[in-house]
Amino acid sequence: MAQVHSHSEVLLLNKFSFCNFPGKLLQRKRSCSFTRNDAVLPNHRRVQSSSPVALKVAVADDVKKSSNDTEDHICDGIESDVLPHIQTLRRFPKVELAGKVALVRFDSTILLNQELDPRSRSVFSALFTIKYLLEFGAKVILASDWSNKINSNVLSAEYVADVFSSALKYQVVTVKSLSYKISLDVGAFKKTDILLLENLSEFKEEVANCSKFAQLLSSGVDIFVNDSFSLSHKILASTVGVARFCYACVAGFHFEESLFQLRKMAKLDEKPYAAIIGGGNLCNKAAALHFLASRCDGLIFVGLMSFQIMHALGLPVPPELVEKGANDAASDLIQFARDKNITILYPKDFWCTKIHHPNQVEIFPSHGIPDGWEPVDIGPRSVEEITSTITKCKKVIWVGPVKFRFSSQYSNGASKLTGMLCKVSQGTCNVTVIGSMACKAIAKVSSSIFGLNMVESSSAVWEFLKGRMLPGVSALDRAFPFDIDWSAAYHDPAQPLVVDIGSGNGLFLLGMARKRKDLNFLGLEVNEKLVTHCRDSLQLSGITNGYFIATNATSTFRSIVASYPGKLILVSIQCPNPDFNRPEHRWRMVQRSLVEAVSDLLVHDGKVFLQSDIEEVMLRMKQQFLEYGKGKLVLVQDECDTKTNQGGWLGENSFGVRSDWEQHVIDRGAPIGRAAVHCEWCENLKVIACLSAKP
Fold it and tell me: Distance (Å, rounded) from C-alpha 112 to C-alpha 176?
C-alpha cells in the first residue's frame, strides 16, 4: 500500500442544551444502554433469553466504560447538535409503564432477518425492548415495514406475527385498522398484550410523514418507543410524525445502544485511531470523510472509493470505476489530510478477473490493472499492509463493505480483514463495525463477536458523520445529560426546593431567593444565553440559595429534580409563550409527561403556581394539571375579596415579586390577570383558586 502523508392569570395547585457548567457541579451521566441496575425485570418473571452469557458480559463492559465518560462536548459540537441526549426506555419510570399502551417502531432488518441470530447484540436488545415493556405491565403495539428482500418468507402480517410469537413467547395478534382508516380498538388487548399493525411499506402516507396517518398510527397510544435506529435519518410518519401525538417519546434499548456506539466512535479518547472505509459514492460522503480525517490518525480505503483516491493522485484507474465528479472531492480530501498530517492508505494490489473469462483470476498491482481485467477484491499485499497498520492502533472503525461492483463471489481479502479485526478486538484495540454487510462478514468469520461494537445501519451513521441532524433522534424527548452536584449548587442542599419552569431573565427567582433564605430556588430555562445572564447575576449578588440550568424542562424535569436531596414544595409556570402552548405544537411547555413528573415529585402539601395573561393558555394549563395529575391534585374554590377581584382575577401579585413578563406587561400599561393561591409563606393572601391535596 502507498501512503499519502498529506493531506397573567394565576392558579395554585396543591399536591395531595447544553451549557458549559463548572465541572465541579455537573458530571456526565452514563449514556450506555442495558444498565442492568436500572433496567432489571421483576425477579418473579425475569425474561429468559437464548443469548449467551458473553453478551451480558460485553454489555456490562460497555456500562463500565460509559460511566467514566466525563467529556462535556465531543466531535467539535457534533454530539450536542446532531445527537442530543434523549429520553430512553431504560430511564423511563417503570411504574409509569403499567397499564400504558406503547407503540414500538421495531427494525425489520434485525427482527425479521432470515437468520435470527440469538448471538447478535442487536437481536437481543431489540427483543429486550419489547419484553421489558411487557414485564412492567405495558400493552404493546408493534409497527414496522418489511419486504421479501429482507426475508423471502415474509409475505404477510400473519407470518410476522408468528415470528414474534415464537421469539417472544407471547401471542401476537394482527390488526387491520390502518387499511380501514379507523382508530385502533383498545378492546383488542383483552385477548393479548401485543398487537401488530399492517406492513407500513404498503402506505404512501408513511414516507410522506402524513399527519393524519401519524395520528391514526398513534390512536390510543400513550408512549412511543423508537427502536428502529436504521431509519433515524429518514422522516417517516412512524418515526417522526407519531411523536406529536404521544405524551412520551423514548428510545428503545437497541436505539440507545446504537447512539452510544456513535458517541464512542467520535471520541478522541484512544490513539492511534484509524478508519477503514469501504463502499462508494465519495462525492456524497465527502463531508463525512473530512470529519473522519479530523478525528483519525489514518484513513484506509478498501472499497470503490479507493479508486477515486488513486485517480486524484494521478494513478491509472479503469474508466468504469471512476466516479463522475469525484475527482475534486477526492483532491480536497487529500489536501485536507496533508494539512492535518493524516495518513491515507489505498490498496497496493487487487485480485482481478478477466471480463470475458470470469473464472480466470490474477493478482495485479493497483497502478497496473491491464485492459480487459476488473478488480474484485483487495490483494494479499494490501491485506498485509492493512494488518501492519491496524495492529498498532488502539481504536478502529470499519464503515462500508470491502466490495467492488463485480465482486459478489470474491471475498478472500474481506475475510482476512474481518479475521484480523476480530483478533485485535480481543486485545487492547477498540473496534467498531458499521453497516449490515460488514457486520454479516464479521459474523461469518468469527463465532466470538462480543469484543466488537457493531452498528448495522451505515446510512444513519454517514448522515451523523456529515454533521446532519437525525430526524428520528430529534423527534424523541430530551434528557438532561449530567448528574448535578447539589452541594456545589446550594449552600444547604437539604432546604426545601422551589422550581420555576421557564425562568426567563430570572427576575422572579432572584427576587424570591433574596426574600426567602430558608428555601432553595432552581430556574429551568431553555434559552442558554438567559441562563448565563442569570448565573452571572447570582455570582454578582452573592446568592447561595439559587441556581439556573439551561434545559428543556418539559422533558428533563423529572431527571433533574428527582436527584435533589431535599423536598420539592413549589413549582411555578408563569406566562409561558402562547405560541408554544398551542395544542398542535410539538414542544409546548405543559405536556402530560411534565404534569405527571411534577405530581410525582411534589411533597404531599406541595403546590403548583400557574400564571398567564392569556386566558386560553391559563385555562389549558389548569385543565392539563387536573386531568393528568393522577388524582393527586384538586382545585379548591374559596371566597375572594370583592374589592381586589376583577372578574375573578386579583389586582396584585401576592408573592410580592414579579416575573419577567409580568413586569413587561405592567411597564407597557397593559392589564394582567391574576388569581391568588394559598401558600403558607405568602403574606396577606386571599384564596381564589387552589389545587389542594385530597384528604
Answer: 20
pLDDT at 488: 93
Helix (H) or strand (E) holding 434: strand 430-434
Q: Cα–Cα distances in Å, from 279 out to 230, 301, 371, 407, 412?
A: 17, 9, 23, 12, 17
| Residue 373, helix vs strand vs coil | strand
Are the CB atoms for 124 and 68 separated by under 8 Å? no
Most confidently predicted of 367-376, 413-422, 630-639: 367-376
Angle separating helix axes 253-266 and 121-135, nearest 10 degrees: 140
3-class state of residue 352 by DSSP: strand
Query: Residue 345's closest CA among 370, 394, 378?
Result: 378
**Gap between the Cα atoms of 240 and 225, Å rounded:** 11
| Other beta carbons within 10 Å of 180 | 9
Q: Where are the alpha helices (DSSP H) in 475-545?
A: 486-489, 507-515, 528-541
Residue 328, pLDDT > 70, answer yes
610 with 12: CB under 8 angstroms?
A: yes
Percentages helix, strand, coil for the chain, rounded to the nearest 5?
35, 20, 45
User: Does pLDDT of 73 surpass 80?
Assistant: no
pLDDT digits (tens, 9 = 90+) for 82-128: 778 889 999 888 988 999 999 999 998 888 875 666 667 788 899 99
Contact 11, 571 (CB under 8 A): no
pLDDT at 290: 94
Name the amino acid, one letter, at 369.
I
From the number of C-beta atoms within 10 Å of its C-beta (0-12, 13-18, 19+), residue 427 rates as exposed
Which residues share a beta bridge with 521?
498, 546
Yes or no: say if 30 and 66 are a contact pair by the CB < 8 Å rule.
yes
Coil vs helix vs strand at 6? strand
Q: How far apart are CA 249 and CA 224, in angstroms?
A: 5
| Cα gap 107→88, rounded to integer Å | 17
Which of 2-11, 86-95, 328-337, 378-387 is the least confident region? 2-11
Query: Which pLDDT tens digit goes with each residue over 333-359?
Result: 999 999 999 999 999 999 888 888 888
| Angle between helical axes of 121-135 and 53-66 (0-180°, round to 10) | 90
Q: What is the pLDDT of residue 33?
A: 34
Within the chain, how many helices (H) and strands (E) appear?
23, 28
Q: Which of 570, 588, 571 is nearest to 579 (CA)?
A: 588
640 band by pLDDT with thresholds 50, 70 and 90: very low
Distance in angstroms (rounded) separating the CA atoms of residues 323 and 375? 15
SS (H, E, C) 186-249: HHHHHCCCEEECCCHHHCHHHHCCCHHHHHHHCCCCCEEEECCHHHCCCCCCCCCHHHHCCCEE
Q: How far apart are CA 661 and CA 574, in angstroms?
A: 8
Radius of gyration, CA atoms only, the chain? 29
225 contacts 133 by C-beta, under 8 angstroms: yes
Q: Do β-strands 357-365 and 342-346 pair in parallel, antiparallel, or remain unpaired? A: unpaired
Angstrom distance (rounded) from CA 422 to CA 442:
8
Give the per-residue pLDDT at 578: 67
Beta bridge partners, 93, equal none
Task: Please tell me whether the overall predicted TM-score, pTM, comes out greater than 0.90 for this model.
Answer: no
Grid coordinates belonging to 22: 463548572
Nine cell digits for residue 445:
468469520
Q: What are the CA-CA distances from residue 429 to residues 397, 413, 421 (Å)?
A: 10, 21, 9
Listed residue (165, 166, 156) closest to 191, CA to CA: 165
Joined together, the cell numbers standing for residue 321 give 470505476
Residue 417 CA to residue 383 CA, distance in Å, equals 7
